[in-house]
Amino acid sequence: MTKLSDLASTIRSKNAGVNQITFDIIFPDPARYHQVLESQAITRESVAKLFRIPVARISDFVTFSPANAIKFTLYRLRPSGSPGDWDILGCQQYGPLLDIEIPD
Question: pLDDT tens for residues 30-40?
Fold first, then answer.
């Protein structure tokens, strides 16, 4: 098993407007990208389970082969910058993705 953080060149999260946070997982080459896709370790359902949210909070889930990338977007529980929002820019949300184990 290999951690996702050892396969991807970029794992990040950021605002996607006031009400959503988007996540990007970008791989340096098609081989690693396809390894992760074929493992089914990152799917709409696995993301929901990892972040402990209902699948309905995932607005988009896209695999984009030309960029060797997986992208998904979550609806926020409260608008960015509103009272109780502890990550206004959405850039601290990707942490749970780092340790996902991908079969070799």
Answer: 999 999 999 99
Tokens of 97: 């993705």
Q: Please choose, from the candidates 63, 53, 56, the residue with its C-alpha nearest in 3D space to the C-alpha of residue 23.
A: 63
CB of 3 closer than 8 Å to CB of 65: no
- The pTM score is 0.90
3-state secondary structure of 94: coil
Cα distances (angstroms) measured from residue 91 to each of 1, 21, 31, 76: 27, 8, 27, 13
Task: Locate all alpha helices (DSSP H) within 21-99, ordered by sequence.
Answer: 30-39, 44-51
Structure tokens, 33: 């990208």
DSSP line for 2-13: EEHHHH-SEEEE
Amino acid at 35: Q
Q: How many helices (H) and strands (E) does the chain have?
A: 3, 6
